[in-house]
Amino acid sequence: MPFTPSTVPQAIAFRQFVDSETGKPVEKDDQVKGYEVGSGDYVVLEPEEIAAAVPESEKTLLISAFIACGEIDDVYFDKPYYLATIKSHAEDAFALIREGMRKKKVAAIARAVLFRRVRTLLIRAYEDGLIATTLNFDYEVRSAEDAFDEVPDLKIQGEMLELAEHIINTKRGKFDPAKFDDRYENALAELVRAKLEGKKIEPRKEPKREKVVDLMEALRQSAGVKAKKTNATTPTKKKATRAAKTKEATPRRKAS
């Protein structure tokens, strides 16, 4: 039985569809679902057609392979779910597969129907149970090569590298999720509470921003390091531009 690790019972959400031409909200009765086949060109899908395409859930996990735990790039990770048994007679099998994977340091690739979609899952041993992480499909993950295509190819050396190492060493720490809060969600909760109590909503004052003239000098001051007369970067060969590419990946679209 999968259930999310999140303990947040309800989040504040806003959703409204707006006509791209008029800018006016689209009423619910006028909303349809469709698949984009070209710029501004859609194939409209009827509710009964979509319902017929939804796969039936057999409430089972079909394991296809066992792989090394670190074999999948975490850019494919989507959302984690805890896995636990709901029937007592399945506890032995559950413990067997959990301890087997833990001993061999492997994870399982499985498929299951979740929320009307066939999803690929990465299942790992986790404390007294299992954790299943839904994986993004290949078409949902943007190519790193395309994303970083225009990043200049620089060789970092000298003072700049020493400064980076100094900042990292002085800022070393450990991850503690309790130290991080959802400021946006908290701000919205405070706003709702204030409106319920009839309080006047004061606009937030924007913090004063000072223009940074020299980024390196600002980093030195924050780290308490004096400047040295050393070359910081050395440009190497330029990367090929997008125009020089002989082949471009065709973007894949999914139904909305």
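[next item in queue]
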Amino acid sequence: MRRANSAASRPWRRRLRALVQALVQAFALAPALSAALPAWAGCDKPVYLSFDTGHMGVAPLVAQVLRDEGVKATFFLAAERTRSGGHSLDDEWAPWWRALAADGHAFGSHTWDHDVWQADTGAGHRVRPTQGPQAGKPRVLDAAAYCRELERPAERFAAMTGRPMGSIWRAPAGRVSPALLATAKSCGWTHVGWTDAGFLGDELPSERFPNAELLRRALQRVQPGDVLLAHLGIWSRRDPWAPAVLQPLIRGLKARGLCFATLAEHPVHGAAAAAPRAVR
């Protein structure tokens, strides 16, 4: 009887041993499988953090916070004046952009000279560049010239990183018109602004809008689906918003059950953000 019981139990033991081995293998593979998943996998209450270029003084700290928190964001690029006297897309910043691209963030155009739209005319679009040799001087760009302003950051990004930019853009100061949007669309660019609750206020004067108040307001107002706007340095803000607000904001939103994704995963803008921008 003892031999019969032993023989009868062998298939059960073999199945148990196989199950244990499968579990061991699964746990061994778990880190690799987790690393292979995109950052947004399983993200059912996403917000879309985005940054426009600025004086770049806080840029290394922003990148480090994003790495520490495992957050991917979307960056809109213009050639903006930096504290070192160059601009945000010059050779000094090329390694930074290259590392950021390798981290898996998304990227779009912010026009080369940060051209703020003012009006539409019979000859094209009147804009006021805030950067470059014509900074502060209104000019009129026809459709071809405006499309060129959108293309130049994409070309520079590809040269710096070896990777294409997405086919999205953000108008400086968020100022657009139906005609301007149509011009950009005609050369393959989709505009992405930000949501009301996503305006994080980092360009407001810190004397009237201190960091603690901006953090409190954002944690209270931001909801799933919001596109958040911040900058890589604002000249006029005395008390920098990043990284002082950025890290507690990320952690606070995560504590509320929200998660972070790039605009390449956005339900409306995702296709354009993920579409590689061909450059000359």
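[queue empty]
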